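User: structure tokens for this one?
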Amino acid sequence: MTLEEIVRGQLVRVVSRPEIVGQVRQVSGKGNVGIMVNGSIRWVNPDDLEVLHV
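Assistant:
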């Protein structure tokens, strides 16, 4: 995904680690995406994310 495609609140999955699913919380100045996973924020490269359509 590109940063332009990412919307706060989206449910996303980490492609390289499919067991990690979270909700987009913020985007850092360095271009990483913070997703909420089990109550903590995990920083992920946006190229490694896919949107889950529920």
